[in-house]
Amino acid sequence: MRAVRKVCYVTGTRADFGLMKLTLERIHGSSALDLSLLVTGMHLSTRYGLTVREIVASGLPIGAQVEVEDDIPSGPLMARNIGRMLVGFVDALEVERPDIVLLLGDRGEMLAAAIAALHLGIPVAHVHGGERSGTVDEPVRHAISKLSRFHLTATEESRQRLVSMGEPASQISVVGAPGLDGLTEIATKSREQICADFHLEAAGKIALLLYHPVVQEAATGGADIARIIAALRAYQFQILALMPNSDAGSDEIRKVLDEASRRHEIKAITHLARSDFVSTMKEADLMIGNSSSGIIEAASFGTPVVNIGSRQNLRQRNSNVIDVKPTEDALNSALEFALKKKRFAKSNVYGDGSASMRIVSFLSSVRLDALSLVKENTY
């Protein structure tokens, strides 16, 4: 009889937890797997909504909470916090002693966990590897892939990229994007309900705004978001804006959003529950900013997405994405096009909504022995 395998998932933001929640619930419910979460980063900060409470409310088991310095976001702070998380993850993983560490994406907490797991002899399974972005996220994502033993990619293109990077094809499985799983089922709120919640007019145009800083372009974030808000207001959009993540440059974006909110130009929100967020994405006339949710999830609703700047550069696109630079003329052209188009076909290159079942199957059945820790490039 095969022993139950223990899986540790690292979560640092509302975004990664929302994308992985259904997968984590299925891991937790599997008789072949035992789940533990290592919680860190933005989850533990009141500045970002103290979203660890959402994890606690979900009933998913937390193995450890790894604290970081909570201060004005900057590049040096991000780097120091990776070091703090590395130490914390080593301590937590020595206690938890998982069979596999499960990571998603390209953030610093995932990099720290991958380094810790590698040195503790624990194989890493990396979700969403092999994708491009053209910013600091891309080398971090690829670094995590090179530290990982197993790869659970969203698309065939990503699989091919990992193979070209020297990752063994036998250790790569195309599972799809876990953020698509259960997406339409949890988008239950109507346009009228959303408008009632946020005091918007259902007959008016609604824009969902989510704009994160790009570390290499931190100095321009405030001016960029101000220009975006001005363009949306010129086209008479009602703007529902979510606060940015904790990367360097986010404080300037937050200041502009706070000021616009005080002037009643936008509705600014620190955090939305996943179901409310995807319901708003479904019902909005437009999604705008530079969030990966616009690149991946929004296509399942056919929502037009104006993707701004370099943060999602080079990622695979669905047909609903309109790429622009953060200039007045480019924004105006994109908004005019989106308003004329209204809606796109509901097709999505990132999968069929069954990633979580494939991930559970993989984690339950993948070979784990001494060879699991042998990492050889194949090129």
UniProtKB/TrEMBL annotation:
SUPFAM superfamilies: UDP-Glycosyltransferase/glycogen phosphorylase (SSF53756). One of its GO terms (biological process) is UDP-N-acetylglucosamine metabolic process. Gene3D superfamilies: Glycogen Phosphorylase B. It comes from the Bacteria. GO terms for molecular function: hydrolase activity, hydrolyzing O-glycosyl compounds. Pfam families: Epimerase_2. Residues 27-363 form the UDP-N-acetylglucosamine 2-epimerase domain. Signal peptide: none annotated. NCBIfam families: NeuC_NnaA (TIGR03568). This is UDP-N-acetyl-D-glucosamine 2-epimerase, UDP-hydrolysing. It comes from Mesorhizobium hungaricum.
